[in-house]
C-alpha cells in the first residue's frame, strides 16, 4: 500500500466520548454490566457505527458482534480452507464494551473503537486491504455479572460449550441465555471453530508500569494465569452480645481470616503473584448477629502456572484449617481458571517494529488483566498493544489515558493490521 491512510484522532476521541455516554455514571465512568440494558444500548450504538462504515455485521450464538470490512482479494485463502476463489480469513481486532460496575470509559471500549477508526480511515482513503478486516465486540469479557470472564471469546474459540455458557447463572440470578434473548442479541452465526487469520487487540494497560517507566506503548508478550473461586463458609448465627467467644461458630471471622491470608500469601510469594478477595457477603449481615454464612471470591493470578497452582492449594488448605478450628463447614465453586498464555512471537515483533517506526518508546511486558486476545490465541496468532493508564488506575471511574497516547496506539494498531492483512495469501 503506497500511501497509508491516517487515523483521525479527533474522530476517535469523539467516538470514545459518545460511547461513554451510554451507561454513564457519576465521576466520568461507565456501568454496562454484560447483557444489561446499558450493554444492549452500547451494542446498538456500536452496530449502528459498523453499519455506517458499510461493514457487514454478524452476531453469533453467544452474542459476539463482528463487523467485516471486505478485502480486495477473493483468491484462494491462506490454506485455511483451500477453496479457489474463497474469501481469505479476516485479520481481526476488537475487544469488549461490557464493563464492571465502576468501570472506566477506555477498558475494552478503546480497542473496539480504535478498530472502527482504522476502518473509517481506510474507507475515507478509498483503500481496501487484501484480506478482510474484522472488528469484534466479545460478549461478557469482564465476568463481573456472569463468570467466567472472557466468556464470549472463550465460546467463540470452542473453549466453553455454548449450552454451558447460556445456562450460566449470574450474581443476580438470571442466566446468560435469558439475558441474551431479552436484549435481542442471541445471534445465529456459529461459534466454536472460527476462521481468523490473526487477532490484534489494543487496550489500556490498566496498570502502572508504562507510566512509571515513562514509556508510550506496551508490546504485550502474553497474559498471566487467572484463578477465580467462590468460597462459602457455614457456621451458626447467634446473639453478638450473649455468645461467649469460645462458643461461636462465626463464618464471618473465618472469611476475614482467609482474606488476610490471601493478601499475605501474595506478599510472601512475591514476583508477579497477586491475590484479591473482591466480593464478600455475610448472612444475615446484621450488626448484632454472628454471621452464619460468608460467601466470598478469591482472585489469584501469576505468570508462573506452577506458583499459581501452589497458591490455589495453600488458600484452600487454609480455608479447611480455619473451618476445622472453628467447627464450620465450607465449600468451593470454581469460577474461572486460565493458564498463562504466550502471544505469537512474530506478531509481537511486528507490534514492536511499528512502535519503533513511529518513534514511540516501548517495552515488552505481560498483561496483568485478562483479555479476549488470550482466548483468540487458541485459534490463531494473537498479540496485544498497550497504551499507558494514568496513575495505573482501572476498573475505576477515574480511569484515564492521555489523548495523544490513545491516538498513537490506534496508529500502531492500524499499521500492524494493514501489514498482516496485506501480506501475500499463503504467507505465514
Ligand atoms: O479480570 C480481568 O482481568 C478482566 O478485566 N476481565
Ligand atoms: Mn478489558
Ligand atoms: Mn476490565
UniProtKB/TrEMBL annotation:
Keywords: Hydrolase. This is Zn-dependent hydrolase. GO terms for molecular function: hydrolase activity. Residues 223-321 form the Peptidase M20 dimerisation domain. CDD domains: M20_bAS. Residues 73-92 are annotated as: Disordered. It holds the Pfam family Peptidase_M20. The keyword Hydrolase applies. Residues 73-85 have a biased composition (Low complexity). Belongs to the peptidase M20 family. Gene3D superfamilies: 3.30.70.360, Zn peptidases. The keyword Ligase does not apply. It comes from Cupriavidus malaysiensis.
Amino acid at each position: 500500500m503506497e500511501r497509508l491512510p491516517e487515523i483521525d484522532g479527533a474522530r476517535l476521541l469523539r467516538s470514545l466520548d459518545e460511547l461513554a455516554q451510554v451507561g454513564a455514571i457519576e465521576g466520568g465512568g461507565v456501568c454496562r454490566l454484560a447483557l444489561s440494558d446499558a450493554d444492549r444500548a452500547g451494542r446498538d450504538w456500536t452496530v449502528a457505527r459498523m453499519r455506517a462504515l458499510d461493514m457487514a455485521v454478524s452476531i453469533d450464538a453467544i452474542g459476539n458482534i463482528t463487523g467485516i470490512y471486505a478485502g480486495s482479494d477473493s483468491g484462494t485463502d491462506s490454506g485455511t480452507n483451500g477453496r479457489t476463489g474463497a474469501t481469505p480469513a479476516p485479520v481481526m481486532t476488537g475487544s469488549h464494551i461490557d464493563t464492571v460496575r465502576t468501570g472506566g470509559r477506555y477498558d475494552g471500549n478503546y480497542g473496539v473503537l480504535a478498530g472502527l477508526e482504522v476502518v473509517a480511515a481506510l474507507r475515507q482513503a478509498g483503500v481496501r486491504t487484501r484480506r478482510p478486516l474484522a472488528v469484534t465486540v466479545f460478549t461478557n469479557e469482564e465476568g463481573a455479572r456472569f463468570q467466567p470472564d472472557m466468556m464470549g471469546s472463550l465460546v467463540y474459540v470452542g473453549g466453553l460449550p455454548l449450552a454451558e455458557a447460556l445456562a450460566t447463572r449470574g450474581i443476580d440470578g438470571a442466566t446468560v441465555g435469558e439475558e441474551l434473548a431479552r436484549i435481542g442479541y442471541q445471534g445465529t452465526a456459529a461459534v466454536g471453530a472460527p476462521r481468523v487469520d490473526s487477532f490484534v487487540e489494543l487496550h489500556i494497560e490498566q496498570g502502572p508500569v508504562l507510566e512509571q517507566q515513562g514509556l508510550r506503548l506496551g508490546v504485550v508478550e502474553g497474559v498471566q494465569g487467572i484463578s477465580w473461586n467462590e468460597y462459602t463458609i457455614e457456621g451458626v448465627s447467634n446473639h453478638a452480645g450473649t455468645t461467649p467467644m469460645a462458643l461461636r461458630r462465626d463464618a464471618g471471622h473465618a472469611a476475614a481470616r482467609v482474606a488476610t491470608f490471601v493478601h499475605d500469601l501474595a506478599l510472601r510469594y512475591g514476583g508477579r503473584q497477586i491475590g484479591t478477595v473482591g466480593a464478600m457477603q455475610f448472612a444475615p449481615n446484621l450488626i448484632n448477629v454472628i454471621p452464619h454464612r460468608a460467601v466470598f471470591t478469591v482472585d489469584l493470578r501469576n505468570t508462573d502456572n506452577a506458583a499459581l497452582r501452589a497458591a490455589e492449594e495453600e488458600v484452600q488448605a487454609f480455608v479447611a484449617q480455619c473451618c476445622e478450628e472453628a467447627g464450620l463447614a465450607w465449600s468451593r465453586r470454581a469460577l474461572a481458571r486460565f493458564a498463562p498464555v504466550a502471544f505469537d512471537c512474530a506478531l509481537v515483533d511486528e507490534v514492536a517494529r511499528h512502535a519503533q517506526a513511529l518513534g514511540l518508546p516501548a517495552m515488552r511486558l505481560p498483561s496483568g488483566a485478562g483479555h479476549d486476545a488470550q482466548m483468540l490465541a487458541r485459534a490463531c496468532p494473537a498479540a496485544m498493544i498497550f497504551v499507558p493508564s494514568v496513575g495505573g488506575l482501572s476498573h475505576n471511574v477515574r480511569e484515564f489515558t492521555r489523548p495523544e497516547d490513545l491516538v498513537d496506539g490506534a496508529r500502531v494498531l492500524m499499521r500492524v493490521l494493514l501489514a498482516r492483512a496485506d501480506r501475500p495469501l499463503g504467507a505465514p
